[in-house]
Amino acid sequence: MSMPRPESENWYAPTWGRLALFALVSRVLTLTAGLFLAPAAAGPHWTADQLAFRAEVLAGPVPWLEPWVRFDAGFYLAIARDGYHPPAEGEGPNAGFLPLLPALIALAATVGVNPVLAGVVIPNVAFVAGSACAGRAALRVTGGHRTVWLGCGVLATYPFAFYFSAPYQESLYLLAAAGGLLAWYDRRPALAGLSGLIAATARLTAVAFPIGLFVEAMLARRWPSRGAWLVSAATAAGAAVLVGYLWLALGDPFAHFKAHAAWGRESPSLGGVGRALLQAVQELGQWERPFPVVKPIALFGTLALGIRGWVKRGPLWGCLILIPVGQALSTGTTLSIERIVLTSFPAAFELGELLGRSRMMRVAWLIAALPAQGYFLWLFVNNGFLN
What we know:
GO terms for molecular function: alpha-1,6-mannosyltransferase activity; GPI mannosyltransferase activity. By secondary structure, this protein is mainly alpha-helical. The chain is 66% helix and 0% strand. It starts with 15 loop residues before the first helix and ends in a 6-residue tail after the last helix.
């Protein structure tokens, strides 16, 4: 009777190194595609502020990265340079953007790294590590090598996965949240708690982790473990860092939540969920333009995968998918939902398992997802507002 080979000797095993290499190759290809699709000149739809920011980046030491600095990236870079401040006339409030990425960019700037370069490099490095953490965590949950590889493939090929390479928070949240989940499965609650604290400074959807732990304990009719309480306290501390800093900087501890009104969001409510779902149903009928119909597909697809994950893997896995989406819907709009579902990263592995059932399904996913990502990346670098 032959003994099973160690994981490191199995060519198909999703080891740390192989997962990281796969993610790295995907980022190099994505960054290259963005530069290739970049406009030669600004279009007539560019605003004066966008033109000024473009000129500033082009005059800097890394002008070739200018196509990746779009929309929210400008806010993150401005916060890194100037901190949080009350909005000037005609300007959106920067308190709506969380501090982890700006803090890291500012830290890099103190040692001489150009902020634009740091703003692009940091998310891409975070995605490489975060994708590997997510894959290893999914291996603990699913036990399937194929599911892990296909799930990481979904993370890289999803039509809006290019946001993982832009100066946005998505990659940082993936690293912190997936790293915390992996630490929890490895029975390292202190590290999981630290990861929850960091995740909360990138996305407040970090609350999905402690909520999932408590729901899991409640449904099992047992008291939450000390580790679950530690993760909850640490995640709450991360949110408190945001609230406290904005209180000191702007004199209003609720500045972050109020700022979202400027972007068309309501205060969270159950009624908001209903209104957002109705909006998504209406968007399904807007076939004359490609973007509006993609948003509800991403939304309803993620919700379906979240329900599947809950039933098959348990409430923690399900909460990590469903709560970020529910939190976004509670504000009464589907604004940016195509990007927000990136925080529901376990959904990628649920879809990966489904794709593993049929080669035809895998081919169909690539035929649909890769051209779609190319199109939306083209819109992004050409300053076409996706919403």
